[in-house]
Amino acid sequence: MIRICLLIWLVCSSAFSSVMLLKEYKDENLTGWMMSEKYDGVRAIWDGKELKSRNGNIINAPSSFIAQLPDFALDGELWSNRGEFELIASIVLDKNPDMKAWQNIKYMVFDLPKFDGNLSDKMAYLEEFLSLNPSSFIKVVKQTYIQNNLHAFAFLDEIVSKCGEGIVVRDPNASYISGRSDKILKLKKWNDSECQIVAINNGKGKYEGAMGSVDCVDIFSKIKFKIGSGFSDEIRKNPPKIGTIITYKFQNLTNNNKPRFPVFLRIKRGE
């Protein structure tokens, strides 16, 4: 039984200004940290009154969804199943919510931004709240203590084998802060980033008469490179416009800091 009266709860009187963002894993010692699956959905922050994207835009969830949310802050991903990002985004970012479609959306909560306690305390508090206030869609993200780095990478292999995106590892005693933190990291088999399309190249052979590849400039490094794989036949026939921001994955960087084996993932939607 959790002695709630001994936990210090900071009541959310206004929306917090920014969200805690992940950094990439490098070679940190992860022993004693906690790990969970990284859900490829739409980041959503509930401040006790409004549901917003990571950029602070209102998410127009149905009133039945909002009614089940607590009066304290939550941070998590709106998600349905692995490999359904485009479907999730089309549902969640629609200004006119489809109540039937939203029935498939789960709120995978991994943090309580205004709670003064470690990660285990936070998740235990939310578990007890849900035991008293059952929800059909709020889910507590399972956190597992990491024995050592091999344990974390074995878990990563397990998630990837099930078509998951990757995992998140974090220091369970780290405070929730605004911006990127080296206390919460993402591990993936591939890296990913975003780039802006600056040119569309005609295809050859089987892709003659359609898009073959695109020239891009990474929005962070400003490095220019080409992406020719990962596109569906439909996208090749109807390519995105020049200036569109897309998300891509790659294995690592070359000596010239260009992404090695870049692969198109999706068009970045507004949040």
Strand tally is 17
**What structural class should be given to the helix and strand makeup?**
alpha+beta
Radius of gyration: 20 Å
CATH fold descriptor of the largest domain: D-amino Acid Aminotransferase, Chain A, domain 1
- Give the overall average pLDDT: 90
The H-level CATH homologous superfamily of the largest domain, spelled out, is DNA ligase/mRNA capping enzyme
In DSSP terms, counting alpha (H) and pi (I) runs of 4 or more, how many helices?
6
Task: Quickly give the CATH architecture of the largest domain.
Answer: 2-Layer Sandwich
| Measured distance between first and last alpha carbons | 39 Å
**Globular, elongated, flat, extended or rod-shaped: what is the shape?**
globular
* Topology as a string of helices (H) and strands (E): EEEEEHEHHEEHEEHEEEEEHEE
Strand order of the largest sheet: 2-12-11-3-10
GO biological process, one term: DNA repair
Keywords: DNA damage, DNA repair, DNA replication, Ligase
Enzyme class: ligase
Catalytic activity: ATP + (deoxyribonucleotide)n-3'-hydroxyl + 5'-phospho-(deoxyribonucleotide)m = (deoxyribonucleotide)n+m + AMP + diphosphate
